[in-house]
Amino acid sequence: MTEAVEDAEAGAPAAAGPDDAAAGGPTDADWAAAVAAVRDLRADARVLLICHVNPDGDALGSMLGFALGLRRLGVRQLQATFPGPAGVPEPFRWLPGVELLVSQDDAYPDPDLVICFDAASESRLGDLADRLATAGTALVLDHHASNTGFGTVNLVDPHAAATSVVALGLLDRLGVTVDAPTATGLYVALTTDTGSFRFEATTPAVHEMAARLLATGIRPGDISRQVFDTRPFGAVRLFGEVLGRATLEPAAAAGHGLVWTYATHDDLARHDQPAYVLEALIDSVRCTAEADVSCVVKQSGEAEWAVSLRSKGAVDVSRVAVGLGGGGHRFAAGFTGRGPIDAVVAGIRAALPTAVLIPRA
Ligand code: AMP
Ligand code: MN
Ligand code: MN
Predict the structure, then answer these.
(1) Is the CB of 336 within 6 Å of ligand 1?
(2) Ligand 1 atom closest to Cα of 54?
(3) 55 CB near ligand 1 (under 6 Å)
(4) How do residues 155-199 score in pLDDT, each as one tens digit?
(5) Whole-angstrom distance, CA of residue 82 vs CA of residue 152
(6) 0.90 exceeded by the pTM?
(7) Please, what are the domains in the chain?
(8) Compositional bias (Low complexity) at which positions (predicted)?
(9) N or C end: fewer C-beta atoms under 10 angstroms in the chain?
(10) Residue of the nearest CA to atom 16 in ligand 1?
(11) Atom of ligand 1 nearest to the CA of 10
């Protein structure tokens, strides 16, 4: 769907301070507790997997890859879901394991075990957050440095390039042999969050994991084409229009520059496109050489906007997003904006100078 969707650039230096519980990654005790939570399930246990709202390749790929691994372990009562409308974005509809997806209304109300993927906080689980209380055990798999540790057991590794790194770590400890269908989801997650192995997150360990997944026989060319390089002609035209009205503000962010654009429900309707096609738009906007910071403001309600922020390294956009009620990673973050577009952008513009990491020479 997009090369820099939600968690892209996650492996860029984590925005974790010494006080972050997650800073060091999972301890041996965390891994042991997670393994026990799965191993000790009764044969008739109901397991519910949940990933974050507006799921991206890491959310869906980690969740569905892990689901198929659980299947191989013999878990029979297994559902996967995410908050909000049930439709899976077209780029991910072919993923092995999608048949396990149910709408949030059909998800087990009181599962024995709930496992959350790629969500930094309960708020990212929308109406499904209540399952954290109704489930016997809540296991959290994630890689956001800002993760609040909202599970009973938390496997949070801010150094992991994607949540699928954590998911594979747990599958290995459970003794699950990774087959091609499982590898497909985990690989989609890894390519999504590393921007197809281009971002700083692309460590030797990332390539080693990719090699291991590819060795199952999955086809990277086919996967990349479906996930990143395919969109309807209407979306191509829509992008043209929305990119055509992008604004460059060279003086913003203390001279590092800001480029931004917006898309409304009306834009989507005119081109007969679903909202998720806009997730890929930030990748085209952030190419702008003259701006360190890029921003796409996407209408999500009457006067409500889903805002994506990216930085090339001079600005900590997570600081901007957190200050405006959102979150994310240092160089890829977002928040929900309210009011007129101009006011939302004014809020960003005002916050940027406080988030500059590298003074402009
Ligand atoms: P996006 O721009 O939607 O691809 O998101 C980039 C990053 O920002 C991800 O790590 C998200 O977890 C985070 N993010 C986006 N929107 C929000 C939000 N409304 N609240 C908290 N975090 C967000
Ligand atoms: Mn994500
Ligand atoms: Mn992620």
Answers:
(1) yes
(2) 3
(3) no
(4) 999 999 999 999 999 999 999 999 999 999 999 999 999 999 998
(5) 19
(6) yes
(7) 21-228 (3.90.1640.10), 233-355 (3.10.310.30)
(8) 10-26
(9) C
(10) 334
(11) 10
